[in-house]
## 1
Amino acid sequence: MANYQTRHIRDECNCLDVSIPVEEMTRIVTEGDVPLVSIHPQAHGIIDLCVSRATNATDYVAFSHVWSNGLGNPQGNSLPQCQLEYFADAFVEAGWDRARLFWIDTLCIPINQAALKTKAINQMGLIYSAASSVFVLDAELQQIRVSETADHSHMLALQAHILTSAWMGRSWTLQEGALAKACSFAFADGIQHMRSSLPDLERYSLATKKSNGDRLGMLSNLISSRGLQEP
């Protein structure tokens, strides 16, 4: 953890981190509720993060990401401004509002109080299952251009990229996807929405234990049973 580097959108970027209102977030978790974040632009290119309490009727997105890709922060509940601007732009690309409510572990799990951290982690099953969509950020997928997968064969390749991505290969993020009502995947030039199915994800998880030949057959079946849709 000491050597962990939170990633900027571009390597040369040196923008400042933006922090969630930590006291308010901590209070919400302490009271057994779920904190949600929204992004609000201010003057001179600055953005603020606001935190609110989720209710049974709240519509929100839950982010799912591979920690090693650099979207974590072991030092504080903050992220680089460039990443937050990317989130807001991605929301618009997905057909949502820039200020859409969202949950991400980096901002919404207290890091300095062990008991509260555990309490927040124990809420994650509920958080992902209640979200309107799980927004998947995978560094490899974010390098793939959707515009280059226009025909049917290329679309199958795109689906194969998802099913063999680092995100699908880790049990923690796989479970987040399995709990989702729907998943939205970020690519280099667009967002793809996928209907999520727990049986499909379970079948893929089992497939990882099979031989390469068996996995190719399982992958083919999964591709035919899961549909990618344009936003």
Note: The first strand starts at residue 17 and ends at 19.
## 2
Amino acid sequence: MKILYKALFLLLVMITIGVSIYNYTQDFDIGYNQPPIPPVPDQTKYRLKLYFGSPRNNRLVSEERVIVSTEQQPEKLIVEELIKGPRNKTLKPSIPPETKLLSIKTIDNVCYVNLSRSFLDTYRWDLMNEAITIWSVVNSLTEIHEIQAVQFLIEGNRVGAIEKYYSLKEPFYRNEELLRKEVITPFDTFNVFLEYLRAGNYDSAYKMLSKPSIEKVDFLKFKLNMGTYIRELRDYEITKYQTQKYSSKVVLQMTYEKKPTAITYLGDEFTESWEMVFENGEWKIVMPI
């Protein structure tokens, strides 16, 4: 009997071992044939500093935003958040919400931002500000240490001006001035120039000239010519103007009309043009030679 019990016990042990081995191989085969489970992407907390238009849309105001995302390109996240617009409803959006970010990449410290055509086609000229639009993107992206400049592309191509003043064919660099003071257009700059001349402040007016103009025209000649010029304009006022944008300059064309009851020698109305260039974040006047 003892021999029988031992035989039955050994048989039971062998059956148990066999079943265990079978189950193990089945589990192994099932796991082996199934595709691997992809890892869950790590989420990153980004603390972004975005720039939008001020309530009057004449300078930049920063808005900090914390985003938790699986996105590995912070520059992509920045532009997408700019397109969504400011959370602070007193600030002005800088990019049309219809705009699509087609691609974005940074090469040699220049970030190439490729936007859809709707960026231009749906731009609200009556509500938006060209300079605010450009530097809201540039200043937001250059918060990233590796990015020093931004090149705008429209569906993969470099294009001319958004509206009047700025060409998108070359990269833009960070502009801290728009954080401290209002946007100054070429026409605004020229009006300041005229005010300096009317007040006899020729030193300040001379400093508003472009660098090549200062190199070609000395101060005494400038003072003599501008003294005559401003005396002739004494009884005139600018009634309308238009701006023409070229690749490297802006031409400001203004129409002057004689003030009521004024006696002058230039006629009741005349038109003149001045060239202006953008140097070191400011509009400068090109002195006619």
Note: The first strand starts at residue 44 and ends at 53.
